[in-house]
Amino acid sequence: MKKKILAIFASAAMCLGLCGCGNTATSSATSSTADTTSTSGSTSSDNTDWNYIKNKGEMIIGITYNMPMNYQDDNGETTGFETEFTKAVCEKLGVTPKFQVIEWSKKEMELKAKTIDVIWNGLTVTEERKENILFSTSYLKNKQVTVVKAENADKYPDTASMANISIAFESGSAGEDIIKNDTALKNCKQINCEAQKDAMLEVKSGTADACIVDYTLAKAFTKEGTDYSDLKVLENIQNTDEEYAIGARLEDKETISKINAAIDEVAKDGTLKAIAEKYDLADALLVGGESTTSDVSAVSAAESEVSAVSSESTAA
């Protein structure tokens, strides 16, 4: 009898022990989940919008190498109008700019994935892009232009005369939009390029009859004395004026607000105008300088150092 009673007590003790262990495990898991939730909730709050950039201490800038905006100088250093403008704004913001070369056609994906914080590379403002990008104050005017070999310029009085030619463009660019929406150009043989400078090279080498690129880049590349001086901008074919702005994630409203305030500062203190003058872009400024929106053709090539680099880019 005693043995039976002892066996019953032992069994009861084991059950209680097992229940206790089970409750402890569940409690620990719940506690762990709660702690994780609490921690991640805090982290999530700190890693959104401007806090995400401020906490890192750096702003990752998505760019491509296109003169005179961003390009590499003789020492392999990134320079250009956008480069210097970015550094001036980031100094006001108290963060360090980190330039990241991206595929232009994937710029919105890069932004969403947070591999970059902003797109800052002659980014044209369009209604379609506004669906995925939050834009800053527009700071520079531009337009898309058609470039051909100078010897062939007379062949093309309008886009209708360009039907069925081969035409190059940067994938994901405003130039591509023009080609796809033009009655004559959309039937051309289309050559997708990773960068606008590659589209220029297609024309230079004869593998494309024409290309559509930013006016700012075309004028810098085709300046007399460069390896592209045998190419010509078709001034007779006019496209709608555009505006450049900085692009951020749609939810990053505070970031854009702070960037806009910094743009206003560098515009008012003359820094932006000085940078623009260095690259012969002062007449294209929309903030911080005298600017007439109808006179985009006043934008010319960047200074002589830019011309030298364009020659080296061809060789490379």
Q: How much strand content do the residues show?
A: 15-25%
Number of helices: 10
Given the C-alpha coordinates, what overall shape results?
globular
Q: How large is the radius of gyration?
A: 28 Å
Number of strands: 13
Helix content: 40-55%
Mean of the pLDDT scores?
Answer: 83
End-to-end Cα distance: 98 Å
Biggest sheet, in brief? 6 strands, mixed
What is the N-to-C order of secondary-structure elements (H for helix, E for strand)? HHEEEHEHEEEEHEHEHEEEHHH
Q: Runs with pLDDT <50, length 5+? A: 1-43, 290-316
Helix and strand composition category: alpha/beta
Describe the structure.
The chain is 42% helix and 17% strand. With 316 residues, it is an alpha/beta fold. The longest helix has 45 residues, at 2-46. The relative contact order is 0.15.
